[in-house]
Design brief:
The protein has helices at residues 3-11, 24-28, 60-63, 68-74, 86-89, 119-128, 148-153, 158-164, and strands at residues 45-46, 49-50, 91-94, 101-106, 132-137, 140-144. The chain has 176 residues and is α+β, with helices and mostly antiparallel strands. The protein has a domain at 65-164. Strand 3 and strand 4 form a beta hairpin.
Length: 176
């Protein structure tokens, strides 16, 4: 079976614009209100997703957050047709406060999965429109200055490269 067919089958059951069992934000994000450190599973994760999802105890950090995939579908944005679902990509896209930039948070348990997804194509597209991209991988931050850096980034494990140069993760995570 070809890679494209496997990918179509993998996401065939996804409801567009929904989490569909993705919990990357619950693992990667720091949630100060409940003392959750970045790059560790939230204690409130359960079989149904987040045990606080519809409760008054849901942290403001979580209430205020939507990944770009969810936002693109909810707001019917132009990129909804090209942005990959985080489960497919092994990464999710978030918008910082600057509307001309975005951040890609890579799944620390499967850091190269995004390389074989539609994520590189999506990133090239947004970068060509002038959006700045930063990739956060296992606590390390990698700003990309142009679309050609995406191809170079996929040729090596940048975290291993950073560690070999003696660099430390910016976000307090021990490299995995």
């Amino acid at each position: 079976m070809g890679q494209a067919k496997r990918r179509r089958e993998q996401i065939a059951g996804y409801a567009p614009g929904q989490c569909n069992g993705c919990d990357l934000c619950c693992v990667i994000a720091k949630i100060p209100e409940i003392g959750k450190a970045p790059f560790s599973p939230c204690a409130n994760l359960c079989a149904a997703g987040c045990s606080l999802h519809n409760s008054d105890s849901k942290p403001k950090t979580c209430i205020d957050f939507d990944c770009r995939y969810i936002m693109s579908h909810r707001l019917d944005l132009d990129d909804k047709a090209i942005i990959p679902h985080p489960k497919e990509a092994g990464a999710y896209v978030s918008l910082p406060h600057d509307p001309r930039s975005l951040i890609v948070y890579v799944d620390p348990k499967n850091p190269r999965k995004w390389h074989g997804s539609r994520m590189p194509t999506y990133l090239r597209t947004v970068m060509r429109s002038g959006i700045r991209v930063t990739v956060i991988d296992r606590g390390f931050e990698f700003p990309l200055s142009d679309a050609s850096h995406i191809d170079a980034m996929m040729q090596v494990d940048l975290v291993e490269e950073a560690i070999s140069r003696g660099l430390k993760p910016k976000y307090g995570m021990e490299a995995v």
